[in-house]
Amino acid sequence: MKISNVILTISFLLFQSLLYSQTSIAVSGTVTDSDNIPLPGASVVLKGTATGTQTDFDGNFTLDNVSADGVLVISFIGYTSTEVAVNNQTTLSISLQEDAQALDEIVVVGYGTQKKSDLTGSITTVSSEDIARTPSGAPMQSLQGKVAGLQVVSNGAPGSAPTIRVRGLGSYTGDGASNPLYVVDGTFYDDIGFLNNEDIETISVLKDASASAIYGVRAANGVVLIETKSGKVNQKAQITYSGYQGVQIAQNLVKLSNAEQFSTLARESGSAAEASYIDNAMQRYGRSRINPNVPDVNTDWYDLILRHALIQNHSLGVTGGTESVTYSLGISQFEQEGILKMKNDYERFNIRAKVGVDISDRLKAGVSTIFSNSTTYRPENAAFSSAYFAVPIMPVLDESKTEAYPKPYANAQDLGYRQPQNPFPLLENSEYRDKIRNNLVNFNLEYQLIPDKLNLRTAYSHNFEALETREVRLPYFYGIGDAFRENAELVKRNQTFSEQTWDNTLTYNDDFGKHNLTVLAGTSFRNRSFEQLEVKGLNFPNGTGIGDESYYLDLAKSIDLDGVGDDGVSQYFFSYFSRVAYNFDNKYLLYGTFRADGTSKYQEKWGYFPTIGAGWVISEESFMKSNGVFDFLKLRASWGELGNANVNASTGGITSTEVNGVFGDTRYPGLVTSSDFEALKWEVTAETNVGLTARLFDNNLSIETDYFSRETRDAIIPVSRLLVPGETRQNVGVIKNSGIEVAVNWSKQVSEDFSYSIGGNFSTLNNEILDLAGQENLTSGGDIEQRSVVGGAINSFFGLDVAGVYQTPEEIAADPAAQAAIATSGIPDYIQPGDFKFVDHNGDMVIDAQDRVDLGSYLPTYNFGFNLGLNYKAWDFSLNVIGQGGNVIANSKRFAIRQTPDANIDSDFAINRWHGEGTTNSYPSARGIRNPWSNQFLNSFFVEDGDFIRLQNVTVGYTLPSLKGKFNPNIRFYMTAERPLTFFKYNGFTPEVSNGVDAQTYPIPGVYTLGVNIKI
Fold first, then answer.
1. With 70 as the cut, is the pLDDT of residue 776 above it?
2. pLDDT at position 33, please?
3. What is the pLDDT of residues 224-237, one digit of tens each?
4. Could you tell me what percent of the chain has a pLDDT over 70?
5. Is 57 helix (H, G, I), strand (E, B) or coil?
6. Would the CA dihedral through 187, 192, 194, 198 be positive or negative?
7. How far apart are CA 895 and CA 893, in angstroms?
8. Could you read off the pLDDT of 443-461 as tens digits, one per residue?
């Protein structure tokens, strides 16, 4: 059954159940605050029943089937609940009073909740409204620019999750070692891409060690807590539908050199061969009628491989509750096409259920389940690199290539070039499908051993994921070398991942006098297992008229035994943890946790990690009472240690070699033993956080500021082995991240019709390596060299510093470094005007490897976000702006010209290239960019500024006026533009590149949607 049919069927059944009732009396009315301003969304419930509703945008409500002598219970967050007797009245006007304590919201923390005023750590919470505004299949994308200290690096490919970093990068190794922990309704995950945005109530980011420590060794890089939507006690069943449909458009396309620009570059390159290739193209494809010196082909490859793509999401949910049962149910369907012109799509179907039951006055039970079924067709990323280098003087198809199949693809080798340079054979003859099924279940029981004081909770959760991968590579031929694929290849890969967790906690709460105490103790058992089986088949049936019905291994003519793999791993963890939270007179706060983690993953089986926090609520002091400015002011500080279990387990082993030794004419057999085994232990992160929380001017202005210093000790880094070639990983590094975070928000209800909010956040980051165990540096990246040195950031780019461009032969003759290079090469014109001039940093009048310097880090030194919200009568408007700076991007595509000298290059270079004295002092000439002197090493020309500012989201909504009668739905229509404008200098599709090396980054599209929210 299609999702649309399922939604319609469920909607009909739910509508029927709601409309069928016996009517006693209909009551309508308005709920306002003390200033007579309407309160939309206030709860109105008939006491002792599940009959209830919520007020609309104007604070109005209508409630049928009310007993004439009944009592209504009216409640709203931040206000004191009140009870109103009906007394046979049909119209009521109800005013709620602000509740100072209720204004202090409750936030979710590990294994429980806390009042925000009692927090000593750093936690930021994002609400469901902000999350649902982002049209994306990845929930974390909605947090971009909204949380100080959180870096979200977008990924444009359908079904791909963004890169998430909380307060920097604390591990040198990759493989997810610096990823945060995700906790959904108490269950642990490495990724939450399976979640639907509409199902999320809140996302809280726990940033410092004190806030995260209760979750142990998976929380060293921060924790992201997700609470899905729940029902409420005595809440009338509420049905919601949310849906949008829109289009994705590739943004900021890189302009490549057109045929005329490319021909000019080829003739200016100084290469007779390159000039001859232009002549070959004119002979093969004809001359342009506009310019007879240019071939009559002008192919824009990026334009051809990209497309406009559709995106849509439909969600249907129902929530409610009685006195003893709460429930929340939902189904959703998300579909997203990719902007790359191939089978490149993502779709996901979700079913969600969350039920809580009060079995007795003391015993409660809860269960939440999510079933997610998704299919992803991954892109052929090599197409972006191929399109960048493809020459514009060649078409996609060349009808003269009668021997080519399945299509007569044009081949640049036919013109004399060394590579085929056509992305379409890859795009049209490759298909990469992933089917992912997630089954997630959480079951918990709570029993009050001492009512309202001592609570025992046990929770079991299981996350099971099955991944079925099918990779199809069909044969093609349009030339020799890289222009053919001889065999039809089929790869089948099945992976299963299972994680089971059993948590048991005992929580004690008590108030005595001015003292408030919460003590928690618990244990956690966790088992993670992974299995994989992979098989590769060759030459299955394929060709015209044959489709995926032949994509089965039993139809392949042979099995490639080198492509068979069978793998698996199982790991166990056990932990003891405790927490104490103490509050004296709502002024002085103490908070401490201790966790002991055991694992089978490392040789050091146990780690012990303490944290402590303190807070002083200054606004509660007598000298701050009635100050007229501060409604709330708190100073807080915390320190803590956490182990990091995200680093891969130890590898290597012991090897023995037989040898012979001779002593006194006698040969003795012997054995030499060596080991490359990595005896690893925990990485340990120690963090200090100092912060200030304030609310001012009748709670209209809120301010959060933090300073943090996070130091990873025993960081795992590669170390050269003594006497034996190679490296092993050892716990000997020290890495530090530090910075400040500021978040300021102002909101104001100006009148009954108009309210607004405005806010922003700003954060800095200083990533620094403090110790490499005596090693000079750690090097990676190959030609795009990256180095980690003491005092610098992790994997900073390393190369020559460009001082300018030689303008004249006299300038070259006057430069000792240039003359030394010419003499060494033995070529008189080795360096010419238009070549780079480099900084001789060590002053030896020679440009060589010793002159290379730190060219910058891909980690931004600052991030910021700005938001604006307006509400006027039935209209609402919101706007978000984000940005970052202080980072750089290595333009690997441009730098690759040194290895692919006869390929195309972007039009920015063609326009701004040096082509005569005084034309530029920044860009080299067409010859210069290919000259070994100019690109012997990575240099600052190819490492570009990564700063950007973006209009991230603009949403305009309109809520229809309320209808009179029994059926009174709340309907809101809206339009959203996601990423409509981005301003940056970098010469690429996007300045968001997760590792800073842009070789073939998938473009991040702008998204434009129309949507509707219906609440009944």
1. yes
2. 78
3. 999 999 988 888 88
4. 93
5. coil
6. positive
7. 5
8. 999 999 999 899 999 999 9
DSSP 887: -
Mean pLDDT confidence for 972-999: 94
Nearest to 192 by CA among 223, 226, 148, 168: 226
What average pLDDT does range 921-939 have in this prediction? Answer: 92
State which amino acid sits at residue 659: V
* 578, 603 Cβ separation under 8 angstroms: no
How far apart CA 226 and CA 224 sit, in angstroms, is 6
Q: Which residue has tokens 């005007």? A: 833
Torsion, Cα 661 664 667 668, to 10 degrees, reads: -60
pLDDT at 677 over 70: no
Query: Which residues neighbour 469 within 8 Å (Cβ) at sequence distance 6 or greater?
Result: 432, 433, 434, 435, 491, 492, 493, 494, 495
Q: Which helix (H) or strand (E) holds 732?
A: strand 727-749
pLDDT band at 964 (very low <50, low <70, confident <90, very high): low
Among left, alpha and beta (phi > 0; psi -120 to 50; other), residue 856 is left
Whole-prediction pTM: 0.86
Which burial class, exposed, middle or buried, applies to 667 when counting CB atoms under 10 A from its CB (0-12, 13-18, 19+)? Answer: exposed
837-869 pLDDT, tens digit each: 999 999 999 999 999 999 999 999 999 999 999
How confident is the model at residue 20, as a pLDDT?
37
Burial 20-41 (b: 16+ CB within 10 A, else e): eeeeebebebbbbbeeeebbbe
Own/partner contacts of 616-623, CB < 8 Å, gap of 24 or more, are 616/587, 616/588, 616/589, 617/117, 617/586, 617/587, 617/588, 617/589, 620/585, 620/586, 620/587, 621/587
Torsion of the alpha carbons at 830, 831, 837 and 839, rounded to the nearest 10? 40
- Of 509 and 55, the structure prediction assigns the larger pLDDT to 509
pLDDT at 114: 75
Distance, in Å, from the CA atom of 171 to the CA atom of 733, rounded to the nearest integer, reads 9
826 alpha-carbon distance from chain centroid: 52
pLDDT tens column, 683-742: 899 999 999 999 998 889 999 999 999 999 999 998 887 766 778 888 899 999 999 999
Instruction: Give residues with Cβ within 8 angstroms of 549, minimum separation 6.
Output: none
- In total, the chain counts a number of residues equal to 1016
Task: Give CA–CA dist 702/723, Å, rounded.
Answer: 60
The string of DSSP letters for 270-332 reads T-HHHHHHHHHHHHHH-B-SS-TTSBS----HHHHHB--EEEEEEEEEEEEE-SSEEEEEEEE
Residue 973, number of CB atoms within 10 A of its CB: 14
Question: In the chain, how many H helices and how many E strands?
Answer: 12, 52
Burial class (CB in 10 A: 0-12, 13-18, 19+), 920: middle
Average pLDDT over residues 155-183: 88
Three-state secondary structure along 638-693?
EEEEEEECCCCCCCCCEEEEEEEEEECCEEEEEEEEEECCCCCCCEEEEEEEEEEE
- CA distances from residue 579 to 211, 516, 686 in whole angstroms, order as listed: 11, 14, 18
Determine the Cα–Cα distance for residues 673 and 679; give it in Å rounded to an integer. Answer: 17
113 CB neighbour count, 10 Å cutoff = 12
Tokens of 517: 């105490």
Q: Which of 535, 515, 527 is nearest to 583 (CA)?
A: 515
Task: Tell the residue number behind the tokens 């298909």, with chain if given.
Answer: 431
Handedness of CA 659, 664, 665, 668 (dihedral sign): negative
- 272-285 and 259-268 are packed helices; what angle lies between their axes, rounded to 10 degrees? 150
Q: One-letter amino acid identity for 585? A: D
Residues sharing a CB contact under 8 Å with residue 388, sequence separation 6 or more, in sequence order = 254, 256, 301, 302, 893, 903, 904, 906, 1000
Residue 643's pLDDT is what? 87
Read off the DSSP letter of residue 906: B
Residue 930 has pLDDT above 80, yes or no: yes
